[in-house]
Amino acid sequence: MFKLLLFLFFLGLVAAENGLDGWLRYAPIPFAHKHHGHIPDKIVALNSTESSPVNTAGLELQKGFKGIFDKRVKIDDRIHGRHGKGGSSVIVGTVEQYANAGGKADVPSLGNDGFWLDICGSTARILGQNERGALYGAFEYLSRLAQGKISDDTFASNPDAPIRWINQWDNLNEGGTHGSIERGYGGYSIFFDNGTIVPDLTRAAQYARLLASIRVNAVVVNNVNANYTLLTEENMDGLARIADVFRPWGIQMGLSLYFASPEELGGLDTFDPLDERVIAWWHDITDKLYKRVPDMAGYLVKANSEGQPGPLTYNRTLAEGANLFAKAVQPYGGVVMFRAFVYDSKTLNQTLDWRADRANAAVEYFGELDGKFDDNVVVQIKYGPIDFQVREPASPLFANLFETNTAIELQITQEYLGQQCHVVYLPPLWRTILDFDMRVDQKPSLVSDIVSGKRFNRKLGGYAGVANVGTNTTWLGSHLAMSNLYAYGRLAWDPSSDSVEILQDWTRLTFGFDPKVLHTITKLSMDSWPTYEKYTGNLGIQTLTDILLGHYGPNPASQDGNPWGQWTRADSDSIGMDRTVWNGTRFAGQYPSEVAELYEHPETTPDDLLLWFHHVPYTHRLHSGKTVIQHFYDEHYDGAARAQDYVHMWKSLRGRIDKERYEHVLHRLIYQAGHALVWRDSINTFYFNKSGIPDDAGRVANHPYRIEAEDMILGGYLPYAVSPFEAASGATAVVTASNSSTGTAEVELKVPDGKYDLAVNYFDLAIGRSEWSLSVGGREVGRWEGDSEYVLGHAPSPYIDGHSAMRITFENVWVRNGDKLRIVGQADGEEPAPLDYVSVLPVGVVD
Ligand SMILES: *[C@@H]1O[C@H](CO)[C@@H](O)[C@H](O)[C@H]1NC(C)=O
Ligand SMILES: *[C@@H]1O[C@H](CO)[C@@H](O)[C@H](O)[C@H]1NC(C)=O
Ligand SMILES: *[C@@H]1O[C@H](CO)[C@@H](O)[C@H](O)[C@H]1NC(C)=O
Ligand SMILES: *[C@@H]1O[C@H](CO)[C@@H](O)[C@H](O)[C@H]1NC(C)=O
Ligand SMILES: *[C@@H]1O[C@H](CO)[C@@H](O)[C@H](O)[C@H]1NC(C)=O
Ligand SMILES: *[C@@H]1O[C@H](CO)[C@@H](O)[C@H](O)[C@H]1NC(C)=O
Ligand SMILES: *[C@@H]1O[C@H](CO)[C@@H](O)[C@H](O)[C@H]1NC(C)=O
Ligand SMILES: *[C@@H]1O[C@H](CO)[C@@H](O)[C@H](O)[C@H]1NC(C)=O
Ligand SMILES: *[C@@H]1O[C@H](CO)[C@@H](O)[C@H](O)[C@H]1NC(C)=O
Q1: Which of 137, 472, 605, 689 has the fewest CB atoms below 10 angstroms from its CB?
Q2: Shared domain check, 342 and 225
């Protein structure tokens, strides 16, 4: 019996560490019994209706006390006797409910969703301005307990902005397939499957719990690239079920709409937003939705962008399009988030027009519409003028709308930032935008104060975070990426929150109290965005990823001549977008004068945005004193070296983190270290090739430890010219002669006897499971499969390119001079076991 109990206990522990509970694990704290004096005898939740967030708060407190202190505390819905008598209690409810129940407290006036927390010994009062606020207060109290921060405190907390939404880009996927997620890297949709809403919404409820704890108040559940099929009667019923599981967590549901639905679903011959029949159709749909979901948050609309239909189709303004929906939801208190991501790249020609610039589009489309949007419309603006790049200046649209509500769109899912296969802790990047001072009318005008509504006295505004969680227990595909989701909520509540403090709260809640774990994850995460920028795109040139496919691996050539208007204008002498007013696209002139003046000249533009604003020779000297090209080379070497360190840093935590999460993270960090080298070499090779300017330090195109596969003795393997050329060392890989055959590559090693790290660079396409084996001197060193597409989750590539390039390393292999190194590749289907090179590295060297 004891054995069985022990086993169950163990099972419980293990099951809890698959990531599903995120930062809400309520793991036992060290010396929990010492704090038993701080645990109340009972929980009083002042509303016991099942769908009430106050009721949820009571249950959550109970769960927390059980997990953290192993103590079962009863829930009551009434205050018995006077406060302080008849045992200690934690009381949770709204300020009003507390007063109605006879409670007396000197609560400062609270903003919408705000709360007041009063902790005194084993007694606590958690009072919200509304029920949602009370739940937030309960989560705050629990977060403190779970971090061992057990002390008396009395304070109020109010949100900086009313809108703190999440956007999921989930598709309904008709035709028998699971709901896919645009830019999702952690499994399938938790909401949709085969064209409809999943029957079991357990995960949706668990997601709502996580989001409520970070004070997110609404989730738009379907992709901004929406489909009219969302609005069938059956699906509207399903959506009501989603709203039902959100409601106890104080989360409202929102929907993305497809602009042409009246035509494609309603059977009308138009979707003109001013047509009476179209208006009636949308009002009818809206009524039907609110009948099912009376507290629906509202709509999100992407119109006239990237092929989406919209009001411009009928020569109507974007404001007329937005107001159509605004009028429909207005009687219900609903909000319309209207995306400012509108551009028409077809009008841009890079070759013909030096002044062509997609970055100009948002202000051009929306600037003149200021004041024309209804009061319940919020224009949702991506943080930068292009598209979630590794570094962008703040979108100038924030400083061009004074009589219009605005929200900032941040991307938690790492579309252009390593797709959760590279660690990138995002708050430091987000803060570069939120803290940016636009100097509107020469007055302080932080982006965070503009979107909160403070700067221009707007009632609505705030935050939209694109967070594409999926069915994987890790939610985002990576345990470490969850800090971004957590931090998003914290920053939307208080944009002045410190990136390190947020991270450390998250780390303690997610991984426990070990100071070494805390220190290591802090160091690694805080270093991660600068590092990613170093080995991808520097100086504001953008991420330099493949713009045509996947947005994942390196492909700098795709950044020019593409039809998306995302360009670098790199030629053999110079690089960068000339966005000056005097000679370029005039984009700099979209900022208020003080900022515009700064960005107009290379001398006053910060180095990290130089190539965003200026077209300069590769030999241009930065403020740092380095040339642009040498800066590229050095940064890529430095960034890739830091990524190697992450593996060692993480390995130092072995035994300090549960095995399941330790291994999951380690696997990704090893992968990242290899892919960082792919990035380094691709970008350096590409610009060396373009400019012909050698690296001062002699590293670029000089790899003494490498043996190119194409230079080995090949049997059944044929040389293959890789495209883009820079994705393969020496521009060439080898592939098996046919789809089913075996290839061998052999070479005699001429190295002093000793121990070496053997690194093999190969390509794992998102098709097939090729197999490789490596042997040295007749002894097998290892074998592996091309199965990363089932594990990593980044955008799949069926090609031999910068997305599929990767590395496996075998450490401390004993090699004798003259040993034969042999790799055997077994193709599988269309995956021809591609091989790039082998590095025979003295221990400690990485190349
Ligand atoms: C209790 O919660 C329900 C559901 O949220 C709500 O309708 C009701 O008004 C609440 N009761 C009180 C007394 O606040
Ligand atoms: C919407 O879904 C239907 C059914 O799967 C499909 O035929 C149609 O092409 C989709 N429309 C858009 C705009 O994606
Ligand atoms: C998908 O839904 C259709 C009906 O819309 C149904 O006929 C089909 O069996 C479903 N497929 C799967 C795999 O559930
Ligand atoms: C995520 O889920 C998918 C589909 O269920 C699975 O194939 C994959 O291995 C999971 N990925 C990770 C990183 O756990
Ligand atoms: C929109 O306006 C343009 C130019 O005024 C005109 O050529 C076009 O026919 C109009 N389109 C519609 C749908 O009214
Ligand atoms: C841009 O103009 C050039 C030169 O006239 C032409 O060859 C090219 O096709 C145009 N590109 C686009 C995308 O229209
Ligand atoms: C000014 O613009 C022209 C293209 O019109 C470009 O060739 C030139 O390099 C630019 N000059 C500077 C100093 O940026
Ligand atoms: C760049 O690549 C081209 C085409 O592969 C080649 O002809 C040229 O020699 C390379 N230049 C440098 C500097 O490597
Ligand atoms: C491999 O298989 C694919 C599809 O089955 C085919 O298109 C391709 O030509 C084959 N390649 C070789 C080298 O046989």
Answers
A1: 689
A2: yes
